[in-house]
Specification:
Length: 423
């Protein structure tokens, strides 16, 4: 009598998490199959909320389809790489050529490749907390150790450079910067970025700067490209078409290397080897890059007063301000809000349980804060992509659930959490 063999997953996945598309998202799909309508705020996916990729980008792809049927160079097509060089030069980045640009199937693939080409067993990478969790997962997958430097809520989710410096050891190889930040929407000021650049230069750390939201800015926030500050060590600027150009499904990202490239020849060879092993990235969508970067930047309308992203962000800020339970550092960039729950009102609040209850009882899907590698359980993330009316409905449901929590615990005063935090 034969017995069934148990197929176990790789031990290398033991410390790899990506809860944004994890258990809660799977449960949401189950509920949808049962006929429930779920409002999904867990992922920043513009196309699901009615945003369109600029028409000129679609036309550029169509016109170049005959040139897209063969593999291209492992680094990507030249017009796309040259357009990225021109963008970087216009921003003040010096000493960059098309040979320094690698195209990828989204920034996600490139995060894996740049780390795989760099890390040996036990090498450490400094990653912000909260982070976009793919960075931590990719470090772990590639035999490294993610060392999280805190970007604390009480500091506006900005890092303290002195704390970053204190975490550096002999095994530290790289520093990750996510600006504008996902999940918090914080835009890191120039003086913080300059301090981080000097720390990286002093310790010869590779800087990986994730700038996928570089043009999503609100109320005069200033975006400072990290590559304009890093001179005496290697810097990789990571960006793509997914967010600013609302083209997530195109899967086009890039890593542009600048700074101190001398001494990095072997690393670049390793990165080119890995790029060759996957043959090339998606060719048709690469033809949209030149048009996207050189054309009209329609995102500016979306993030200006009256624009859809601006007004949705304002709806969230206003809803939080009215809530007895919630508080928020208004996001200065990106397409997310990282919302805190007042533990004076709800001392036993748990972000995972809240997210599950919100899904099961109110049919709203959010990402619990612990998904983003933070040590506290008091936050959750929503995307700002839905229309304002949808968000008003969502926050009504959130307050209903939190009110039910408070009633079970015996209530509390009625001063809003935002007012209490502001004091």
């Amino acid at each position: 009598m034969s017995s069934e063999a148990t197929i176990k997953p790789s031990e290398g996945l033991k410390h790899v998490r990506y809860e944004i598309r994890g258990r809660l998202a799977r449960r949401a799909h189950e509920l949808e199959r049962l006929g429930y309508e779920i409002i999904s705020l867990n992922i920043g996916n513009p196309g699901l909320f009615g945003f369109r990729t600029p028409e000129t980008m679609r036309l550029a792809m169509i016109e170049n389809l005959p040139e897209s049927e063969a593999y291209c160079h492992q680094k990507g097509i030249f017009p796309a790489r040259e357009a990225i060089v021109m963008q970087q030069q216009a921003r003040g980045v010096q000493g960059i050529t098309a040979d320094d640009v690698f195209m990828g199937n989204g920034v996600s693939e490139l995060i894996d490749l740049v780390l795989r080409a760099l890390l040996n067993e036990g090498d450490e990478v400094l990653v912000p907390s909260p982070d976009y969790p793919l960075w931590t997962a990719a470090v772990n997958l590639n035999r490294g150790k993610a060392v999280h430097y805190p970007c604390r809520p009480e500091n506006g989710f900005l890092p303290d450079p002195a704390e970053v410096r204190a975490l550096i050891t002999k095994r530290t190889r790289a520093l990750v910067v996510i600006n504008p930040n996902n999940p918090t929407g914080a835009v890191w000021p120039r003086h913080v970025l300059e301090s981080l650049a000097r720390i990286a230069e002093q310790h010869k750390l590779v800087v990986f700067s994730d700038e996928i939201y570089d043009q999503m800015l609100y109320d005069g926030a200033e975006f400072v490209p990290m590559a304009t500050l890093v001179r005496d060590t290697l810097c990789a600027t990571m960006s793509g078409l997914s967010k600013v150009y609302r083209a997530c499904g195109y899967r086009v990202g890039w890593a542009a290397f600048s700074g101190q490239k001398q001494g990095a020849a072997e690393y670049f060879s390793a990165l080119e080897l890995l790029s060759s092993l996957r043959l090339c990235s998606n060719v048709p969508a690469q033809w949209a890059v030149q048009t996207a970067l050189g054309g009209y930047q329609s995102v500016r309308e979306l993030v200006s007063p009256g624009g859809r992203l601006y007004e949705s962000r304002r709806a969230i800020v206003d809803a939080v301000g009215r809530s007895r339970f919630l508080w928020l550092h208004p996001p200065a960039g990106a397409m997310y809000a990282f919302i805190g729950v007042d533990t004076a009102e709800l001392p036993d609040f748990d972000d995972r349980q809240f997210a599950l209850d919100l899904l099961e009882q109110k049919h709203v899907l959010v990402a619990p804060g612990v998904s983003f590698n933070v040590p506290y359980r008091t936050h959750f993330r929503v995307t700002t992509l839905p229309e304002s009316a949808t968000l008003a409905t969502v926050f009504g449901k959130i307050d209903e659930l939190l009110t039910a929590y408070a009633q079970r615990k015996g209530g509390g005063n009625v001063v809003s959490a935002q007012d209490r935090f502001s004091k």
